Amino acid sequence: MLLTAAARLSWAAILRRLLIVNSFNALLWLLLPLTYGGTEVVRFAGLNLSLTGLRLAALITIKGNAAVLLFISLLSTSTVARLGHSLQLLRLSPRLCLLLLFSYRYLGLIHEEFLRLHRAAELRCFHPRTNLHTYRTYGHLLGMVIVRSWNRAARVQQAMLLRGFSGTFHSLEPTELHRNDVLLMAGLLLTALLLVVLELIG
Q: Quick check: keyword Transmembrane in the entry (predicted)?
């Protein structure tokens, strides 16, 4: 929560993401106290609730929300291009870094292409139903998206080769390690070590 507050992100967007995570946690709160078992039992509304199940549901909820807040605060403050370049500087596979960058860049374009073809089908009075015509139409639609994506990928590859692309990603923004970065990394490592020690002691 401290990292999220320091990142100065929109709390409304954060709460929407946490709502998705906690919808799964709500199911755990309903099932674990009733099914986990154990000797310690708490009676509530005529039901025998396992105290161990309640503790486990609370632990999963706290850890899940902490992990989501950690990723949001660390990843939302950086662009995908800078993230890909940083992963490459950490000696991650260059192919994986390029896959991340190209996926982020072109998934939106592929989605736009799908929406354009879907609008064209609707202008031709296409109304989806549970019949063979609808399944065939969606099959043709997805086939056209794959074909056009393949053609676009071929054009992009040719354009990059013409510009001398050799498989290495170069960033236009200089990457420098500042004192605040070192302090943040040290603080996160010490916190992680403390959590591991507490887990072993508990």
A: yes
- Residue 82 placed within a domain: no
Residue where a domain stops, chosen among 77, 112, 136:
77
Kindly report, residue by residue over 82-132, the tens digit of the pLDDT.
Answer: 888 778 878 888 888 888 888 888 888 888 989 999 999 999 888 888 899
Q: What are phi and psi of 43, to 5 degrees?
A: -90, 130
Residue type at 5?
A: A
Render pLDDT for 164-177 as a digit per residue (tens, 0 to 9). Answer: 887 777 777 766 77
What's the CA gap between 142 and 182, in Å, rounded?
47
13 and 66 together in one domain: yes
Provide the H-helix boundaries in the chain. 2-7, 11-35, 51-75, 80-89, 94-123, 132-162, 179-201
Q: What pLDDT is recorded for position 82?
A: 80
The C-alpha angle 45, 50, 53, rounded to 5 degrees, equals 120
Buried residues in 143-153 as b, exposed as e (16+ CB within 10 A): eebeebbeeee
